[in-house]
Amino acid sequence: MAIAFAFALVGCANTDPSNAAVPTATPSNGPDPATIRYSCVGPPGFLPTLFDRPGKAELEDHPSAAALRVLIEEGSFGLGFLPDAGWWLVNRNEREAQYIARLPDGSELPFGHVTMHAKGASWAFAGGGHCRPDILLERLMPATWTLEPNKPAPDRSTLEFTALVTDTGCTGGEPVGPRLLPPSITYTSDAVLVVFAARPFQGITTCQGKPPTAAVVRLREPLGDRRLLDAGVYPPADPIAPEF
Question: What is the DSSP letter of 243?
Fold first, then answer.
């Protein structure tokens, strides 16, 4: 089951980041980070605690693991960048098995993933690649955010900041705008984890780039020495806009 955040259905956001953003509501403390599910390929996804144990799923005595070993050894389907070892089993049922592995530092994205499908008594490659896992939400669209690139970085006293938010769905180039919901914010001893989500875009559309939507986030307590992170992706990321 995808985790269902208690996003408040109040507030709105400005679709033009050059203008003053409309404040978002400040919700109660968000979920324990260990209970948030992430995925590269949709449900059921995984919990961060998956990585608390060593990744050895490629060594299992199971037909899906045997097929994974063959795929890795052959470097098939242009997936020669996938690691030889260090795989975790995300999920397996009678028809499908999902695997994930960390990629080396410096890779474009942090994880490699592979899906295997059962074909009679054997298993075969169904899909894979590299990814940055997104949060799994129920009936909502995940969104990522960055800080304003030309503004001072948050400091110990920060109680408010502007997030530039982009939902991850296909919208024909339309920004998230009024579909954006107020964030879920989790406060821990070493981080403030902010997750944005949006109502899904309605209608048939295309996938292309789109401008962000600015939203003011108000914290219930100063940031202090904690890191401010986008927990809509795994691992939670510093919200720094990419340089082009």
Answer: P
Report residue 114 as tokens: 């592979």
Identify which of 156, 142, 149 has the alpha carbon closest to the alpha carbon of residue 228.
156
Q: In the numeric block, which tokens belong to residue 109?
A: 């994205």
Ranges of each domain in the chain = 1-35+137-244, 48-131
Measured between its terminal Cα atoms, the distance across the chain in Å is: 37
- What pLDDT sits at residue 78? 82
Residue pLDDT, tens place only, 118-168: 988 899 999 999 999 999 998 899 999 999 998 999 999 999 999 999 998
Number of residues assigned to the chain: 244
Write the CA distances from 160 to 152, 215, 222, 231, 236, integer angstroms.
12, 10, 9, 18, 20
Provide the pLDDT confidence category of residue 60 given band limits of 50, 70 and 90: very high
CA 219 vs. chain centroid, Å, equals: 22
- Can you tell me whether residue 166 is helix, strand or coil? strand
Distance CA 186, CA 28 (A): 8
Instruction: Count CA within 13 A, CB hemisphere, residue 6.
Output: 9
Whether the ω angle into residue 235 lies within 30 degrees of 0, i.e. cis, is yes
Quick check: helix, strand or coil at residue 190?
coil
Give the chain's radius of gyration (CA, Å).
20
CA distances (Å), origin 235, targets 82, 106, 111, 193, 239: 19, 15, 10, 11, 12
Name 196's bridge partners.
143
